[in-house]
Here is the input.
Amino acid sequence: MDELVTTDLVSTTDYLPPIFSGQQLPRSLDKLRPAIKTAFEAWLKKTESARTRQAYRRDVEQFLAFHGIDPKQIEHMTRMTPDDVTSWRDYLLAQGGREDADGSPTPASNATVARKLTALRSFFSFLQVGGYRGGNPAHPNFVKAPAVADEGQTPAIPPKQMIRLLETP
Here is the structure.
């Protein structure tokens, strides 16, 4: 990270305003890559479940790929706008699900799209907690997630029966 800190010998026009813990970051996205990649890996590690980490990694990589960006160039996340997130959400809802039997695209479920948006929101929130001063383009004030039923999908005692059982004593 030493290369990210400015000194009197470095022109400040080569750097972005301080966005991570007061450090000056380079304007060049290639030079910004290590800082964002490190933050991304730290964000993934905070989740205990290996499957969730894999899903979140895929979500962010899919988001970048949708916008024609190599997922290895994660620093481009700092350039995303709410319109970028909205267009990805709309794509997922229209044809971003698994292919059907004849290979045609199908819509992703509302629950899947909501989870993917949650992954983006969480990553940007993590960056902000770390000192990133940019906005969260996936924030619910900018991009609405599709409605998802409050009731779970796991077969169990129906909620009304459960309430009656709990109220019985």
